[in-house]
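Incident log, entry 3
Record: 4-hydroxy-tetrahydrodipicolinate reductase (267 residues)
Problem: checksum mismatch between cached and fresh output.
Input:
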Amino acid sequence: MTRIAIVGVAGRMGRTLVNAVQQDSEATLAGGIVKRGSSLAGVDIGELAGLGKLGVVAVDSLSAIVDDFDVLIDFTTPQVTLANLAFCAEHGKRIVIGTTGLADAELAALEGYGDRVPMVFAPNMSVGVNLTLKLLETAARSLGNEGYDIEVVEAHHRYKVDSPSGTALKMGEVVAESLGRTLKEHGVFERVGQCGPRTDKEIGFATVRAGDIVGEHTVMFATEGERIEITHKASSRMTFAKGAVRAARWVAGQQEGCHDMQDVLGL
Ligand code: NAD
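Fresh output:
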């Protein structure tokens, strides 16, 4: 049985994760962490998730539950995630990280923990998205250097704070890598005013923020006469939460390394 604690347990993903852990027969809820000083400290995390009392109350510091859990699941912000990695390194814990929007320096800092903290880090934990990444690799290899323009379009709910989404960037990276390109050189994130026609090798990104959209991603391969679109649509956060719990069970058996969902799923 993997003992899981959830950081940001009162958040959108946090509450969904409580449900997902409850539904998993090989995982158990060992704790939930809210922001320091939050009025939700002391509240039963089952009640936060709409499940009724589960007998585990939210705490506002990891130290309070350090002996209770094996794996931390963290869907919060880059700064909080890095602080939690330091805690895991100090206390011999494992971690699953779903947080997106990390800057390059934060990403480097995260990867630096790979030799001390067994972790799974993925901008999208859904099985479907990770299969989609494989399909994109194949499509890019067949089409990308044959005159097909590549564009990534994503849509999310109005509260999302980072853009483009971590998943859109990951899809772009997979396509770029398959073609020997980089997003630094070929990614185009803004087209405003007289920006001229697109170049052959650019990979364009477009973002929609509206209402309650859980997460939609399309990668388009377009040329004269045809267009291929590979699309993934998430209709519930449960798909990410179930993937994260699966990753937590998997990482419980790892001794080191910074892994992604492809490793977890054996893709
Ligand atoms: P949210 O704002 O609803 O939840 C974040 C929670 O973290 C909030 O409740 C906040 O109070 C809490 N928090 C902040 N600082 C904290 C601290 N120091 N200690 C404990 N809790 C703290 O956001 P969300 O929609 O749940 O998304 C969270 C992150 O997960 C975002 O980066 C989002 O892009 C990412 N995300 C990833 C996936 C994936 O599959 N990898 C899926 C969905 C969302």
